[in-house]
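Give me the fold.
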Amino acid sequence: MNQKKSVNSMFGTTIKIPGEFKNFELILGVLLVGTIGTLVLFSTIIFPDGGKTVNLLARFTAPFQSFEHILGTDALGRDILERIIVGGKVSFSVGLLSALGAVFLGTVVGLFAGYYRGVVDVFIMRFADIQLALPFILLAITVVAILGPGLDKLIGLMIISQWVQYARLVRGSVLSLREREYVQAARSYGLPDLKIIFGHILPNALGPLVILTTLNVANNILLESSLTYLGLGADPQTPSWGGILSEGRNYIQTAWWVSVFPGLAIMFTVLGLNLLGDWLRERLDPLEKSRL
């Protein structure tokens, strides 16, 4: 059956979105993320030199003029395609590890805050409100100024700054779920709190978590690229999408490809992750599912 989704536009009219379009979102998202992710995963096998081979005789080779350097070379004659694929390993690692760390910390905190409530809940939520008031870029500059740049510090900073989102989301779900009949029945049987929290409540709160995590991976890839571009992220000697963009900004008028192609890699990766996140939201959110 041809499914259609109704969406109210800002003008009050109703727009019908065919179900085939949602399938197209999934296919395009999987294609983009799968292709880039596979290349990044096997980057060390495909390019053993890590994109660090210097060839001054081939510096600033334009794209699509040489089979050896399809996307051109930079100021040191290093292949742009190699550096993009190898550099994606850094960006993907930061995006995934920071999102997983934040979701783990935020989920545990949100579960206990929502289940036990009382003083613990009030203290955690007020601390979360204070942290949300701190600008992330100011916090990043302060940490880098004190501890110095580095991927481990960048990942830790993202975890500390983003656990609040997950904690608030999980807490809101737990406040509703803890009053459900199956939770009350589990209490009446004398099950320990930990078993109720992780065995009965957490599985029913995973849907929104999966969606937020998918979207935050994309957001963290952008953050890593932005901070590295500003000199606050990865070591300049380590190829990353933000670092390649930063190196190419001085040659944007004479060698545009040095910055444009890594920028496109970031754009397509984030687009693919956002499409997957949107598709998951349609499938896992009960309110969205009822509108399909």
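The radius of gyration is 23 Å.
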